[in-house]
Amino acid sequence: MITPNFDRLRLHPGDRVLDIGCGTGRHTCATYKKAGVVAFGADLNLEEVREAKSRLELHDRLGIHGGGRWGLCVADTLRLPFDNAAFDLIICCEVLEHIRDHQAAVTELARVLKPGHQLVVSVPRYWPEKICWSISKAYSREKGGHVRIYRKSSIVKILGCAGFERYAAHHAHSLHTPYWWLKCLVGPEVEEHRLVSLYHRFLTWDIMQRPWITGFIDRLLNPILGKSIVLYFVKSSDTGGVCPTILSQTVAKEPAGYVRR
User: Fold this and answer.
1) In terms of CATH architecture, what is 12-125+144-173+227-261?
2) What was the pLDDT predicted at 162?
3) pTM of the complete model
């Protein structure tokens, strides 16, 4: 389940890419497949970072990579352990809606990205997410869940405040939208439900098998039903990254990670 369109990202051998909020490493692994790229994942959840490590090691064993390197660390988006302008690209997918101080997080992303380079951000689309919140109070109250719903204009404004200029956008994952509505209807806390389980099996099959027909339907429905909005930005200047009410932080250099060939 890859959210960004990597054809838009213009990666080159030697580029350093940060997948912030990497979770179990789906985008870190996708980046590692690009020729000569250094893919680095960071997340607060140690267990998910360990799973990402296992996935990347599997890619090494099977030779499913572009010949670059990878690394992982446990890190807080509000205090990233990297030098200023350390990365050529940052991927931040389905992360900001979980962070209360999202302006501070965006400021940190701007700090560690090189001027003139790209940031791709995805967040849940407003109206499908609003329906989830309306159907289920528990959905928005889950520990570690979503703390806000973004309109496109608001997320663009927040990123613009930090020195980013948007150049493209699209919607993604239309087939996942009904799943979350269904899950909210039966209750997010319900572990086993026949319809939810069947739909989950369908989504897992679709992700693993990638049949052309579901890919076609997903692309067809994305403008209307897409679960996520994906936005592409360029950091406009080397002085960007500080919103009026936020002070930039000086942070230690990159820590030793699981960097390897």
Assistant:
1) 3-Layer(aba) Sandwich (3.40)
2) 95
3) 0.88
